[in-house]
Amino acid sequence: MTGGGEKEQAQAVRTMFGAIAAKYDFLNHLLSGNIDRSWRARSVREVEKRINTARPRILDVGCGTGDLALSFSRAGPVVGCDFCQPMLAIGREKIARARVPHPVDLLEGDALCLPFSDAVFDAVVSAFVLRNLANMEKGLREMGRVLRPGGTLGILDFAMPKMLVMGTLYRSLGFTRVEFHHFTGGIAVLHVASKER
Ligand SMILES: C[S@@+](CC[C@H](N)C(=O)[O-])C[C@H]1O[C@@H](n2cnc3c(N)ncnc32)[C@H](O)[C@@H]1O
Fold first, then answer.
1. What's the CA gap between 143 and 80, in Å, rounded?
2. pLDDT of residue 33
3. What is the distance in A from the centroid of ligand 1 to the CA of 77?
4. What pLDDT, in 10s, does the model give residues 107-149?
5. How far apart are CA 117 and CA 29, in angstroms?
6. Residue of 29 and 152 predicted with greater confidence
7. What is the pLDDT of residues 23-51, one digit of tens each?
8. Burial class of 135 by CB neighbour count within 10 A (0 to 12, 13 to 18, 19+)
């Protein structure tokens, strides 16, 4: 159940991304000088190192316009999930134009209450979403719930002071082999962890 404050925060985030959806990709690549593309590519490589199943099922939480989901489609079929329809609509157009090695499906869903059964994904990934969640711990718990035991979690975000205590949070949520990979002098950070078997 999402609390009152959480509901308002979630609504504000959804409205904000709905308003900027049409310009999101342009701004993203412009403001980062296109470095965000290399961060996503490196994230795929790091997560792939831990995936030990053929054709892994991958979930991209807060997929937005689908860039991370598209990058991960080289590894296996991807489901992207986001609660902002205008972002998803742009993502679906991009996917329809792209040549994808594996299918990519985008659907509406809340990261704090993911519309999936337990332990159905081999990898759960997310980029630039954690900071937007009304309840970060609840979001990570949900990602862990839908990940199969032994599966891989990959979270990419801008570095923030909270990261200093994230290792403890991951371990108290039942993740092991927690690693932090710093990109571009520490501007962005990728968290990789495995769900306990
Ligand atoms: C900064 S964008 C990142 C989009 C994409 N992952 C990327 O790398 O470009 C953040 C996305 O998270 C989504 N988001 C934020 N909170 C969410 C939640 N509780 N459930 C689902 N999506 C959420 C927003 O709608 C937005 O599309």
1. 13
2. 85
3. 20
4. 999 999 999 999 999 999 999 999 999 999 999 999 999 999 9
5. 34
6. 152
7. 999 998 888 889 999 999 999 999 999 99
8. middle
Candidate from 132, 135, 137, 157 with most ligand 1 atoms within 8 A of CB, to mutate: 132
Q: Which amino acid is it at 40?
A: R
User: Does the CB atom of residue 69 touch ligand 1 within 6 A?
Assistant: no
Using the mean position of ligand 1's atoms as its centre, give its distance from the Cα of residue 127 in Å: 8
Closest ligand 1 atom to 112 CA: 19
Cβ(84) to ligand 1 under 6 A? yes
- Per residue in 68-86, is it b (16+ CB within 10 Å) or e — as a string? bbbbbbebbbbbbbbbbeb
d(CA 13, CA 58): 24
Ligand 1 atom with the shortest distance to the CA of 25: 9
Confidence check: pLDDT of 1 > 70? no
CA distances to 36, 40, 169, 181, 190 from 184, rounded to whole Å, are 10, 12, 24, 10, 11
